[in-house]
């Protein structure tokens, strides 16, 4: 059970870091496991330009658990061997959070993602922005992402995306 | 004109790789092609649905302001103040009925007329605001698709489009009454010609997704139109029949009215690619940034008559299927980069599939033939003034 703000904040940070670590390790199963096992678990990645103008289109639009599972299939099975791979480093910083109901928390964080293509070896910024997350408290007290909206300040990507941001 | 030396092979199916990487050739392309006698799509009217809506765009560096005026008419201006040439509007899109230059406070209305400027008594004697509207390039509109040309000598738009008109109109839903869903924008590390050479043409061998979805295609028509070799594809879609690996099958579901021709692609010289695939309507506005970089704005649309469910379906399909992160196109993006690296080697890129005689150009092709690009290359060669070898 989470009893104090300090431990709650630490638990939320653990959710953020678990996602960053899974992505930077390219471990898509672990990325998926960080989401709640609910049918409407979701991940959206969208440019701030689209959201500011009320345009719902995303770079990734996974609005149900089935699509999250399909994204694991894209990366692990369908795209294997067809792209120039790149390393990423996610830097995340919790900026605010509040309790929405007994089982749900809302949090915001900033992110920046560096990428280093394996062939060129030159590091550059892939994207910056903020995560708008809903976090579900599990029966055992643990926390999982219910929904994540990655809102990118970056409106023109410097490269195609293989992995979620 | 500058004489550029480039030895162009005798065979129509060979393109010298130097053409993709030489800076002097790129500078000449900007003059002869991007500022020359070509029409360039820069927007679709549905990106500006309301009076006062505008979008800015740079056509190989030239800043444009495309706006819908207070009476609802779409107009294209150079995005530069008629006074000292300061960039007038910096936002990528928005809604304004007046544009004010912050430099000396010149104010323009949505029709481009200069309606205010402080202290005109200090200007040249006889200064008249009516002489200083925003300058405009030539533009024309085809089923809502806004084209610009920077030359006064370009033929009329319909003649320019020629036999690609029908496929393009059908791709624009038959009536051009589209509704904007949003953008995906990306820069590719590749020459603009490598992008256009490989975006419309989709190699089924590359697309693992096609194979996994039992989507081999091949059942369609590819033809070229006009001397510029605009490329049109029309193909029936055999939607996945075998066991699918996807848990959410709506990504490849077809709800549209057009099953006989589920897939259409129109690729216009020099850089425009548009596609209607399943229920995705996608216009790709592409422009070179330099010899080694092309920026592509993938704009996605619904139709104005779609009900809420259909808009939602198109949104879900458009976000995840095509484009720089899409299930069946992400690997294209990687090929753009790798082709550009490979083009820094000697010799020619050689087209094979669908070529019957290297000394002849054809205009009808099978869906997966790569020879459909060759009429465009012949036009490129002639515009650039490169001489084809005779032996």
TrEMBL record, chain B:
Looking up PROSITE patterns in the UniProt record yields: RIESKE, RING_HYDROXYL_ALPHA
Q: Which PANTHER family match?
A: 3-PHENYLPROPIONATE_CINNAMIC ACID DIOXYGENASE SUBUNIT ALPHA, CHOLINE MONOOXYGENASE, CHLOROPLASTIC
Per UniProt, residues of the Rieske domain are: 39-148
Family in the record = Belongs to the bacterial ring-hydroxylating dioxygenase alpha subunit family.
* Molecular function, one GO term: 2 iron, 2 sulfur cluster binding
Q: What is this protein called?
A: Aromatic ring-hydroxylating dioxygenase subunit alpha
InterPro entries to which the protein is assigned, alphabetical: ARHD_Rieske_2Fe_2S, Rieske_2Fe-2S, Rieske_2Fe-2S_sf, Ring_hydroxy_dOase_asu_C_dom, Rng_hydr_dOase-A
Give the UniProt keywords, A-Z. Answer: 2Fe-2S, Dioxygenase, Iron, Iron-sulfur, Metal-binding, NAD, Oxidoreductase
CDD domains in alphabetical order: Rieske_RO_Alpha_N
**Is-annotated flag, keyword Ubl conjugation?**
no
Per the record, the domain of life is: Bacteria
Question: Which organism does this sequence originate in?
Answer: Sphingobium terrigena
- Give the matching Pfam families: Rieske, Ring_hydroxyl_A
**Gene3D superfamilies documented for this protein:** Naphthalene 1,2-dioxygenase Alpha Subunit, Chain A, domain 1, Rieske [2Fe-2S] iron-sulphur domain
């Amino acid at each position: 059970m989470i009893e104090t703000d300090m431990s709650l904040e630490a638990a939320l940070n653990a959710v953020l870091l678990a996602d960053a670590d899974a992505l930077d390790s390219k471990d898509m199963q672990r990325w998926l496991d960080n989401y709640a096992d609910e049918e409407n678990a979701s991940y959206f990645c969208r440019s701030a330009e689209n959201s500011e103008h009320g345009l719902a289109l995303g770079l990734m639009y996974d609005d149900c658990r089935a699509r999250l599972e399909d994204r694991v299939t894209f990366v692990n099975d369908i795209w294997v061997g067809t792209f120039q791979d790149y390393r990423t480093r996610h830097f995340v910083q919790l900026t605010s959070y509040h309790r929405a109901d007994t089982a749900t928390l809302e949090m915001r964080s900033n992110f920046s993602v560096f990428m280093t293509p394996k062939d060129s070896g030159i590091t550059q910024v892939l994207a910056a922005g903020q995560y708008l997350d809903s976090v579900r408290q599990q029966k055992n007290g643990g926390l999982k992402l219910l929904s994540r909206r990655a809102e990118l300040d970056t409106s023109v990507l410097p490269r195609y995306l293989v992995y979620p941001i | 004109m500058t004489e550029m030396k480039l030895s162009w092979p005798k065979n129509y199916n060979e393109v010298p790789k130097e053409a993709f990487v030489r800076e002097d050739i790129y500078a000449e392309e900007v003059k002869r092609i991007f500022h020359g006698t070509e029409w360039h799509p820069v927007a679709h009217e549905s990106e500006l649905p309301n009076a006062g809506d505008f979008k800015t765009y740079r056509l190989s560096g030239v800043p444009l302001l495309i706006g819908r005026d207070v009476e609802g008419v779409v107009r294209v201006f150079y995005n530069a103040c008629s006074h000292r040439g300061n960039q007038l509007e910096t936002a990528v899109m928005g809604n304004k009925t007046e544009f004010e230059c912050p430099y000396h406070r010149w104010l323009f209305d949505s029709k481009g007329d200069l309606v205010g400027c402080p202290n005109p008594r200090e200007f040249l004697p006889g200064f008249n605001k009516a002489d200083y509207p925003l300058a405009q390039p030539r533009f024309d509109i085809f089923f809502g698709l806004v084209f610009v040309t920077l030359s006064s000598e370009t033929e009329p738009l319909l003649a320019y489009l020629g036999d690609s008109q029908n496929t393009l109109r059908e791709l624009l839903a038959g009536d051009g009454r589209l509704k904007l869903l949003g953008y995906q924008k990306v820069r590719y590390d590749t020459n603009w010609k490598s992008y256009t050479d490989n975006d419309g043409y989709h190699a089924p061998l590359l697309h693992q997704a096609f194979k996994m979805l039992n989507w081999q295609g091949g059942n369609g028509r590819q033809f070229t139109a006009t001397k510029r070799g605009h490329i049109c594809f029309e193909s029936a879609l055999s939607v996945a029949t075998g066991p699918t690996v996807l848990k959410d099958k709506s990504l490849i579901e077809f709800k549209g009215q057009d099953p006989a021709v589920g897939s259409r692609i129109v690729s216009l010289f020099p850089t425009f690619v548009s596609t209607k695939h399943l229920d995705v309507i996608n216009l790709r506005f592409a422009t070179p940034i330099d010899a080694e970089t092309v920026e592509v704005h993938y704009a996605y649309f619904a139709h104005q008559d779609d009900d809420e469910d259909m808009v939602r379906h198109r949104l879900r399909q458009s976000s995840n299927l095509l484009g720089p992160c899409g299930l069946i196109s992400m690997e294209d993006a990687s090929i753009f980069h790798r082709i550009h690296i490979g083009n820094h080697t000697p010799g020619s890129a050689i087209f094979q599939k669908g070529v019957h005689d290297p000394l002849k150009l054809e205009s009808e092709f099978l869906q997966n033939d790569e020879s459909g690009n060759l009429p465009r290359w012949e036009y490129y060669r002639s515009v650039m003034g490169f001489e084809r070898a005779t032996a």
